[in-house]
Amino acid sequence: MLAKRIIPCLDVKNGRTVKGINFEQLRDAGDPIELGKVYSDQGADELVFLDITATKEKRKTLGDLAESVARNLNIPFTIGGGIKSVEEVEVLLAKGADKVSINSAAVRNPDLIDELALKFGSQCIVIAIDAKQTINDWIVHLAGGSIPTEKELFSWANEVQDRGAGEILFTSMDHDGTKAGFAIDALRTMSRRLSIPVIASGGAGSIDHFIDVFQNAEADAGLAASIFHFGEISIPELKDALYQQKIPIRLNQYS
Fold first, then answer.
1. 11 in catalytic set
2. How many folded domains does the chain comprise?
């Protein structure tokens, strides 16, 4: 069995790491590069950087961020935020990103997934899906969770896989920042339906939540932000607990 991954996520706005609740109420969490160094030293398996700044110079902003991360850190990282084209992805990979995360642009133009997978390979294409639960379905949302679409979560996840994505990063908007636990049922359904890795995001608040998401939701990776940013749980502490539960995890990075 492949090792489960622990992935700190850094939402970046105007050069600073921020974190909110249900995609709102943002507060400052520190310098993204300095935080990234801490997580790398602690044994994080990967990092995700998402630039949420609205700017006309998005390509330059993301490129500068990717270059700075690659220059200062030696850990695999994914970068995303408003990416819309093959050309933008090409720039980010050339600047040192290992993977790119695409969200709204993939929903608006699903053919982009095929184009990116064909040109760069599925291994570096992560499709992020933000969804909110209704009475009957999980509905995919765009633009930082502000715009509902007509797409249903599981059918969209299947299409994303069929088009060549290498991974899915699923964030439950209902759970994001609440620290009440991951969307276990939805994640389990997705993990069992798909053959590509599923990264769980939204709701991590304790070590038990990570144990739950790996044992009961069968996720391939657990992503979190505020519990790491504000020192509530350390990565070595988390990994030791997962190891004690016989969950396959990489320990040698900090041992």
1. yes
2. 1
Annotated catalytic residue 130: yes
Percent of the chain scoring above 90 in pLDDT: 72
pLDDT tens column, 122-151: 999 999 999 999 888 999 998 767 789 999
Structure token digits, residue 214 = 């790996």
Q: Which of 51, 130, 212, 220 is catalytic?
A: 130
pLDDT in tens, 68-77: 999 999 999 9
Task: Check which CATH number belongs to the domain holding 91 and give it.
Answer: 3.20.20.70
Domain presence at residue 104:
yes
Would residue 33 count as lying in a domain? yes
Question: Based on the number of CB atoms within 10 Å of its own CB, is 60 exposed (0-12), middle (13-18) or buried (19 or more)?
Answer: exposed
Per-residue pLDDT reduced to its tens digit, 63-106: 888 999 999 999 999 999 889 999 999 999 999 999 999 999 99
Residue 52: burial class (beta carbons within 10 Å; 0-12, 13-18, 19+): middle
Which residues form the domain of 53? Answer: 5-244
